[in-house]
Amino acid sequence: MTENKSIDYEKDWNDYAKNWSNLHQDKKYIGDEWIGKEAGAAQCLDEYVQLIENKFIAPYIKPNHQILEIGIGGGRTAEILLKYGARLTCADIATEMLEATKQRIGKERVNYIKLDGLTLDNIEKASIDICFCYDTMVHLEPRDIFNYLTRIPSLLKGDKLCIFHHTNILSKLGWKRFLKDWDKHLLGRHGTAFSVMTDSIMEQFLTYLGYKILVKDIESVPRDCVWICQAP
After folding, report:
1. Helix, strand, coil content of the chain in percent (nearest 5)
2. Is residue 1 domain-resident?
3. Is 191 among the domain residues?
4. What is the DSSP letter of 135?
5. CB 185 within 8 A of CB 6
6. Helices within the chain (DSSP H only)
7. Residue 225 phi/psi, 5° resolution?
8. Is 230 helix (H, G, I), strand (E, B) or coil?
9. For residues 68-79, b (16+ Cβ closer than 10 Å) or e, as one string?
10. pLDDT in tens, the chain (232 residues)
């Protein structure tokens, strides 16, 4: 019998960060290689960054907000979040990603937390106004997403707003992305691979857990789905 393989998010993303400079010598920061083109959202980095800022950050982040970002991916969105909020907690399972973000945005008004992939226990309860998770759930299996969704509400206070972004294989581009490499991730998969997730699954998760859905956006990033919701 073939032994089932588990997903090692921590090792895979640490390895990605360590090898990044060899693969992307023309880029300054980790994450600048993700420009939203394959997702149908933009044609270049600047356009994609502007979309994220204008659609999913500027309308929701206030100057007094304490923000938690789960899965910081080198600090691209963290840099934008700091422009709008009071303080940012950068949380990630990969030490190398935390270090990359630290090099990009520094320590002023920022604290860094290493996650274990299962809990959020080292984040203070009722200390966060906004939970932001963009370009991270696209790599998480549905059960891992659900697990985080069960743990986020106890961390929040005030507006309790959440911005969640994930893949949607029921979209035209999402299905194309699924067909691209489904057979390379059998009996387990690499932690950086895209997950099999849909908007209907996420809506079921959010509704079951008592999140109030404010916005469901399947147009801004046509391959994916972005939710604005209020935690219970």
Report:
1. 40, 20, 40
2. no
3. yes
4. S
5. no
6. 9-23, 45-52, 76-84, 95-105, 142-151, 172-181, 199-209
7. -145, 135
8. strand
9. bbbbbbbbbbbb
10. 344 568 999 999 999 999 998 888 888 899 999 999 999 999 999 999 999 999 999 999 999 999 999 999 999 999 999 999 999 999 999 999 999 999 999 999 999 999 999 999 999 999 999 999 999 999 999 999 999 999 999 999 999 999 999 999 999 999 999 999 999 999 889 999 999 999 999 999 999 999 999 999 999 999 999 999 999 9
Q: State the CATH number of the domain containing residue 162.
A: 3.40.50.150
Residue at 2 is within a domain: no
Strands 156-167 and 110-114: unpaired
Q: Would you list the DSSP string of 178-205?
A: HHHHGGGS-SS--TTSPP---HHHHHHH
- The tally of domains found in the chain comes to 1
Residue 231, CA distances (Å) to 34, 47, 128, 192 in order: 28, 30, 11, 27
Count other C-beta atoms under 10 Å from residue 6's C-beta: 9
Is residue 117 a contact partner of residue 85, using CB atoms and an 8 Å limit? no
Evaluate whether residue 166 is within a structural domain: yes
> For the whole model, what pTM was predicted?
0.95
In the three-class reduction of DSSP (H, G, I as helix; E, B as strand; rest coil), residue 165 is classed as: strand
Helix (H, G, I), strand (E, B), or coil: what is residue 152? coil
102 lies in which domain range? Answer: 9-230
| Pair of tokens at residue 41 | 């959202």
For residue 30, give the DSSP letter: T
Angstrom distance (rounded) from CA 187 to CA 140? 16
Q: How far apart are the first and last CA of the chain?
A: 44
